[in-house]
Amino acid sequence: MTLLTMGSVNRDITAQLIDFPQPGQTVLAAAAETATGGKSANQAVAAALVGADSHLVARCGADAAGTEAVASLLEAGVRAEAVTPGRGAQGMAFITVRADGENTIVVIPGANAELAAEDCPPGLLAQAGWALLSLEVPLKTVLETAARARAAGTKVALNASPLPAGPVDLRDVDMVIVNEGEARHLLESAQGQTGKPADSEADFAGSDPAAQLGLETLIVTRGAAGAALHRRGEPDVEVSGIPVRAVDTSGCGDAFAGALVGRLTCGDSLEAAAGTATRFAADAATRFGTQCSYPRDFRVSTGS
């Protein structure tokens, strides 16, 4: 099976800081670098690096940055035939990384805003085992692509980030991958729609959150603490984190999502795929950058 990832590709400009600036404050960066990023591009690279047949559908910039992005994707093993130039400039992400590895990210969509569901070739969608989507492109594009994938018999995974202010329609989604704050937001929205009181302190364990969201599977990432696997009507599974000295957590959520769904297309069980994804994301956190930090020599353990 192949993995079809559809969404954003950006140029990342990353500055390394001792601490984040306060409003009105100017600080000096220790270093800076420019590289290819974007949530979906990162995820497609992660999937390719763990052995998946990884295809990306995206709009790159009609400029040198777009050309460079396609070259970096190909170097990582991503099939980029469906990455096409838009009318606008390459999307950009301005990232600051604090000394403890925490980060802030500001995204300018650029050509990503032009991506439409029709940009996904029907044949490519039909041959995919999974479609992996995220929310750095228009929500309309994401929802229409999910519906097309469902009609084609392709399973849909959504990395529901960055979350919009309102509810997200998950009717055509099989799996959602989010962090704890994002999961809480989705559950509060679902509870509000059904008249149930929203509980911002809700504990996901034992409450069947996947069923509450109408999903087969909800994956909640917990940073260094690992991840929790919630499958509708089944016991929760905890995946332990991997202790590392993190220097930059930018792109680690994308690394996890891409590696997890990538390994699912390779036939791994959810538990094995999540174990591989946790190790892959932890390794990425030990280097600066997003997809440029992903390990090129990563070994998948069939016993994970």
Automatic annotation (TrEMBL):
The keyword Transmembrane does not apply. GO terms for molecular function: ribokinase activity. Its cofactor is Mg(2+). This is Ribokinase. Its main location: cytoplasm. Activated by a monovalent cation that binds near, but not in, the active site. The most likely occupant of the site in vivo is potassium. Ion binding induces a conformational change that may alter substrate affinity. The active site is at 254 (proton acceptor). Requires a divalent cation, most likely magnesium in vivo, as an electrophilic catalyst to aid phosphoryl group transfer. It is the chelate of the metal and the nucleotide that is the actual substrate. It catalyses: D-ribose + ATP = D-ribose 5-phosphate + ADP + H(+). It comes from Nesterenkonia lutea. ATP binds at residues 179, 221-226, 253-254.
